[in-house]
Amino acid sequence: MKYNFDRGFNHDIKDSLKWNTVKRISTKKDVIPMWIADMDFETVPEVKTAIIERASQGIYGYSEMKDEYYESLAGWTKKRYKWEIEKEWLCFSPGVVTGITLTIRALTHPGDKVLIQTPVYSPFFGAVTRSGCELLTSSLRLVDGKYKMDFEDLEEKLKDERTKIMVLCNPHNPVGRAWTRDELLRLGEICLKNNVTVISDEIHSDLVYKGHKYTPFASISKEFEQNSIICTAPSKTFNLAGLQSSNIIIPNENFRREYKIALENIEVSRLNVFGMVACETAYTYGEPWLDELLDYLEANKELVKKRIENNIPKLRLIEPEATYLLWIDCSGLGLSDEELKKFMIEKAGILLNDGISFGKEGKGFQRMNIACPREIIEEALNRLEKAVNSI
Length: 391
Ligand SMILES: Cc1ncc(COP(=O)(O)O)c(C=O)c1O
Hints:
By secondary structure, the chain is of the alpha/beta class. The chain has 14 helices and 15 strands. The protein has helices at residues 17-25, 45-56, 67-81, 96-107, 123-129, 151-158, 181-193, 222-226, 235-238, 253-265, 273-285, 287-311, 337-348, 374-389; strands at 32-33, 90-93, 113-118, 134-139, 141-143, 146-148, 163-169, 197-201, 228-232, 246-249, 316-318, 325-329, 350-351, 353-354, 365-369. β7 (163-169), α7 and β8 (197-201) form a beta-alpha-beta unit. α4 runs parallel beside α5, α4 packs across α10 (253-265) and α6 runs parallel beside α7. The radius of gyration is 21 Å and the shape is globular. 47% of the residues are buried. Bound molecules: pyridoxal-5'-phosphate.
């Protein structure tokens, strides 16, 4: 391996939300943070070098997105996913959640309904309700250890003429599905039939395990392309979340105009200069690094899977197809959600995300971030096994 993912990073970095939080919330000194979705790995070396070079210029005035930025993103999506993006489709946002929220605001009127599939990344809830819209949820169904969309329920809820938008999570956080083309096709057709626009959050698209595939929603057909807004970012893929740079891809001219007005209304007029440098460099040079990262994550996932299967049978891992976030059914422990949270921190000494924060379907679940050196995973598993088996 060319890159050393075993090395991790320096936890003394003063402003790491992931590491500082454990110090704040727990009386135990060495709780392992496996919660928020960023990685304990240094980013692509070329990105670090490019940022240092740009920083050394000492000029950080207003900047503009250059063609090279678009070309790097378009080159990436074409090469990896055979999805061709046109230059004018590319809009920006500091964060994907900002992009989703602004799109909802741009394309709805107060009181309109917006549908999400739960359990799901929790800021989706606020993106809808804080925009003055009514939240509709469609529960994903867990069938034989795998989450499925409930198409009957979707048909019913999307045909309500007040439902204007559906926010899709593709691949899905936290259940780890990389939706198949057939599933997306069926969903997209229901949306088209009912004039419901799809905002597809594809921030985890590059993080897919062997044997599975990410399908860009907009790449399925011209109709889907014109009926969707696709949100991507290099932040999860290359560990750049702090640089606040996301791509909001809007092929439909009318949606794009409304989105740009929504951006102007909150006076967000340009990207952070270091975010732009990082994004362009990562998409241009980051592929070999990502390919090795994916192998490393695959091995981390297998390690957790085997250990849970063999040694911690009270827990059940939902086998992920994508994302470095593992969705673990802890209902076998017989604890309330409050007790479960306390148990993980105080007894097991690991900080995970509470399943219930992703919606009521997450009751009894925890989400574990495995994007860290194997040594940390092993220590976390030792602690978890000991704590669970002592119940
Ligand atoms: C599905 C999903 N969307 C969006 C985000 C956050 O994106 P941003 O920080 O760009 O708003 C996350 C972060 O974990 C996520 O999992």
